[in-house]
Amino acid sequence: MDQSLREVVRRRAGNACQYCHIAQEAPPLIAFPVEHIVSRQHGGSDDPAGLALAAIGVALTKDPILLASIPKQAR
């Protein structure tokens, strides 16, 4: 995934985690990763609609199989 695609997702998310809504500025100096909502191994793609900005805690604890089951209003 290239940097320009990451920036598209970051701007769309308002620079906040799309799951827990914490602002990127809240944690100290750790850039939130752009994650696949449905993992590539389960058919996810690099289409912006299939990507989400995720806080570090979310990214480290997410289950790649179940992330797509998080309600859309939480994204």
Concise account of the structure shown:
This protein has 75 residues and is an alpha+beta fold. It has helices at 3-12, 56-61, and strands at residues 34-36, 51-53. A two-stranded antiparallel sheet has the order 1-2.
Descriptive overview:
With 75 residues, the protein is of the alpha+beta class. The chain has one domain (3-74). It is 21% helix and 8% strand. It is built from 2 helices and 2 strands. It has helices at residues 3-12, 56-61; strands at residues 34-36, 51-53. It has a two-stranded antiparallel sheet with strand order 1-2. The two termini are 20 Å apart.
- Can you count the beta strands? 2
Largest beta sheet, briefly? 2 strands, antiparallel
Number of domains: 1
Helix content: 10-25%
Distance between the termini: 20 Å
How would you state the average pLDDT, rounded? 81
Specify the number of helices: 2
Write down the Rg: 11 Å
Strands of the widest sheet, in order across it, are 1-2
Task: Provide the β-strand percentage band.
Answer: 5-15%
User: Which term fits the overall shape?
Assistant: globular
SSE pattern, N- to C-terminal: HEEH
Query: Which structural class fits the helix and strand makeup?
Result: alpha+beta
Q: Which residues sit in consecutive blocks of at least 5 with pLDDT less than 50?
A: none
From the structure above, extract its key features:
75 residues, alpha+beta, two-stranded antiparallel ribbon, 2 strands, 21% helix
